[in-house]
Amino acid sequence: MGCxxxxxxxxxxxxxxxxxxxxxxxILPPQEAWEQKKGGYVVIECxxxxxCNPCATSCPTGAVKPFKDINDVPEIDYEKxxxxxxxxxxxxxxxxxxxxxxxxxxxxxxxxxYELEPKPAKGQKVKCLxxxxxxxxxxxxxxxxxxxxxQTTVVSVVIPKKLVGEIRAIKxxx
Amino acid sequence: MKKMIETDLLVxxxxxxxxxxxxxxxxxxxxxxVIESDLHPGGQLxxxxxxxxxxxxxxxxxxxxxIAGILLDEISSLGDKVxxxxxxxxxxxxxxxxxxTAMKGEEEYYRIKAKKTVVATGAxxxxxxxxxxxxxxxxxxxxxxxxxxxxxxxxxxxxxMVGAGNIGxxxxxxxxxAGVEIAAVVEAMPKIGGYWVHAAKIRRLxxxxxxxxxxxxxxxxxxxxxxxxxxxxxxxxxxxEPRKIDCDVICMAVGLTPTTELFWxxxxxxxxxxxxxxxxxxxxxxxxTSNPDIWVAGDASGIEEASAAMVEGRIAGHSxxxxxGLNVKEESFKEYWTRLDHLRAGEVxxxxxxxxxxxxxxxxxx
Lengths: 174, 366
Ligand SMILES: Cc1cc2nc3c(=O)[nH]c(=O)nc-3n(C[C@H](O)[C@H](O)[C@H](O)COP(=O)(O)OP(=O)(O)OC[C@H]3O[C@@H](n4cnc5c(N)ncnc54)[C@H](O)[C@@H]3O)c2cc1C
Ligand code: SF4
Ligand code: SF4
Description:
The structure holds two protein chains of two kinds.
Chain A: H1 9-15, H2 31-36, E1 41-44, H3 54-58, H4 86-90, E2 96-100, E3 107-114, E4 125-129, E5 135-145, E6 153-160, E7 169-171
Antiparallel strand pairs in A: 1-2, 2-3, 3-6, 4-5, 4-7, 5-6
Chain B: E1 4-12, H1 16-27, E2 32-35, H2 64-76, E3 82-85, E4 88-94, E5 99-104, E6 108-119, E7 123-125, E8 138-140, H3 141-150, E9 158-162, H4 166-177, E10 181-187, H5 196-203, E11 209-211, E12 213-219, E13 226-232, E14 238-246, E15 249-252, E16 256-258, H6 261-265, E17 270-273, E18 278-281, E19 294-296, H7 306-323, H8 330-343, H9 349-359
Parallel strand pairs in B: 1-2, 1-6, 2-3, 6-19, 8-15, 9-10, 9-15, 10-11
Antiparallel strand pairs in B: 4-5, 5-6, 7-16, 12-13, 13-14, 17-18
Helix pairs in contact in B: 1-2, 1-7, 3-4, 4-5, 7-8
Bound molecules: flavin-adenine dinucleotide and iron/sulfur cluster (2 copies).
């Protein structure tokens, strides 16, 4: 990843931590297969070479391809991804998500990591935020789990399918 | 000051590096004394409620404070080899006699005679000058972390964070977890200094990161009522209109510098090295300094990360134990260096590599 930071606005946004387009380490799954895939595929947004690899070492199926160098950016073998969400819970960068497009005709489910209070409950409506924290829609929580029992909850939220490229966080309002 | 304690290996500083050095040397059979200023061992680790990066060998994906627990468990599994003395500060070194002085609390003083010593004193926070930076409400990021994550006290309601290195980004996230609002993170450079993923995770919570911006002044009479920030051009000159931000806390996360007083006192050969964030001792590949009885490890040898600090601690403990005449596993040394090389291989490690090659010597003349 070369962060060149010229006057280009997209690059500026990227340099402040906002993903603006696909890059190595931050690529959406192949659309056709994704639309068919029950359970969804992993979506990782980790475009910088950093010394970190739990996504690869914690994936039970090898879907995050084993790193040759600990600084590699994650690469996915979609055929192996079950959408289990273990990487979502394990990634210290909170950079792993699972998105299932098979939920209904115009809705999808996103599993995202959540470490704030209050925790949402199943059935609750939450605000859905984009990559700069703007509220772009509402969603209904369909599951709340703590796969590794380590205080990172994985929240599943039903969201509009047309916003799967944007929604990456939630806000819980009581 | 009559009391004197004697030990094979003295470890100054009970952080990630010091605890690893102690565990490694005690594992080889050394009698170790760890001296730690704080009330608890663990150093920076105990304040880190987030999950760490690195690989499995350095407990990646585990929260920092839990790593401190894992290291302490390893040490207690070694029986009574390691004596950890908290609330005690090493105040000086007298090279003529080879004696350290220590102060427990504020009353009790004693001397320590050690055959070998690992100095793993970590780092100190830097501050930058601006008008009114002495008002109550201006904190270092370390202080904010200690308040929140050790004592459970929030520093205020709304924070301006200065600095978008890993510390600024992570402490912003931790403040947010504690329910504190972040007005903005300002960063003088055109790019965040910390890991991109740490920035992304606060951006998506709606926290603005203003690149090429700095604080010019704190506003307030008796306490902080706000801050004035302004944009910078590519020569770091102020441009545009100054802008007032409402906040009751200004948190400075503008970098750390190695804590090296004891090396100076020991007459170790030192060098200023910007990539390592300050003056650091020269060392060979066993982390031994030019003083043959003193090793360095962790942030005291250059600001890096807990993952590297732990491996350096292992290397220093290994080498100190060996020089005490103890049996050590020779393979471990190679393995530790392989791990360090991996950790430093990336884009972010480039700066560290550039710094280390200036202070790493092939060996010390006998
Ligand atoms: C906000 C934040 C986030 C971080 N995140 C990560 C991360 O995700 N991954 C990662 O790998 N690293 C991370 N780090 C860095 C990591 O915490 C440090 O690099 C690491 O703790 C350094 O270990 P150390 O043992 O050298 O120093 P320290 O942990 O600072 O320990 C030094 C100890 O020495 C003691 N001491 C100093 N002088 C004396 C004296 N004279 N006498 C007695 N005791 C003394 C101090 O009290 C301290 O406890 C982070 C740091 C911060 C601040
Ligand atoms: S969702 Fe499960 S299978 Fe897919 S990459 Fe993550 S851990 Fe691996
Ligand atoms: S675990 Fe997360 S932060 Fe680390 S490399 Fe994988 S995706 Fe990136």
